[in-house]
Amino acid sequence: MNRELAEAWRKVAVEAMDAARTLGTRHTRAAVNRAYYALFAFAHSVLIRRREKPRMKEGTWTHEKLPTMFRRRRPHGEAIDRNLARLLRRARIHRESADYDPGATFESHDVTRLITDIGRTVSKVPE
Question: How many domains is the chain built from?
C-alpha cells in the first residue's frame, strides 16, 4: 500500500510540475498554484515512503503541518529536509497570494525562480 500510494503522489507531483512549467510566466497565478501543489504532492510521497501516517479521513497532511513533518522527522535535520520545509513554506506563501489576493502581482523572474526551485526538488526520487 505504501509504495503504490507514494508512487501515486509522485505522479501527481510530476503532472502538476509539468503544468506549472507550461503555464510559466504567461499565467503566473496558475503557475504558482501548480508549482506549490507539485511540491505538496512530492512531500506526501516522501513522507509515505518513510511510513509516516497522514490524517486518517483526508489521507493528507495539512498545509500548515506538512513543513513541520520534515523538521520533526530528523531533529538535527538533514539538508534535504530543512530545504524541503523552507521551500514548502515559501511556496505556500506565494500560492496563497496567488489564490486569495486579487491585487497580488508576480514578477516573471520570481515565478521562474520558484518553478525552477520546486522543479529541482520534485525531479528527485523520493527516499
Answer: 1
Instruction: Name residue, grid cell 497580488.
Output: 104
Reference 40, options 124, 127, 123, 122; nearest CA is 122
- Grid cell in block for residue 35: 508549482
Global confidence as pTM: 0.90
Residue 61: domain span: 2-122
Distance between CA atoms of residues 112 and 35, nearest Å:
10
pLDDT tens for each residue of 32-60: 999 999 999 999 999 999 888 888 767 89
CB 82 within 8 A of CB 67: no
- Backbone φ/ψ region at 22: left (φ over 0), alpha (ψ -120 to 50), beta: alpha
- Beta carbons of 106 and 29 less than 8 angstroms apart: yes
* 49 within some domain: yes
